[in-house]
Design goal:
Blueprint (H helix, E strand, L loop, with lengths): L2 E4 L2 H9 L4 E4 L2 H16 L1 H10 L3 H4 L3 H10 L4 H14 L1 H10 E6 L2 E6 L3
Helix pairs in contact: 2-6, 3-5, 5-6, 6-7
Length: 120
Amino acid sequence: MKSVIVRNKDALKAALQGDAAEIVVDDARLIKQLRAIRRLRKAGPIAIGVVIAAIPLIPVTGGASLPVGMVGVMGASAFPVSASVIGLSIAIGGIIVIGILTDWEEVEVAGVFKLRRKSK
């Protein structure tokens, strides 16, 4: 099992595209954004569908479409989640965010945030 430690978004992007089975995140801001993705996953398939549908619109609208759509579908509580997901989507790309939503699971033990590749 190959484990990688990442400290920024570029390293995270490379690790997600690589063959790592486990990624340890060592950046508080990045952990906050990844926790937002975890909350989005728990919100359900409709929320994930709205985010996936809005990702192509982010460059065109500056990201405004995602919070508006999320608030309309899920209520005002979705806004903090969507803002972090927008930041991560712009920084590392929509395809990577979709990969995190589908191919990885988040594990947080004793203050250490890890992404583990889901077994197939």
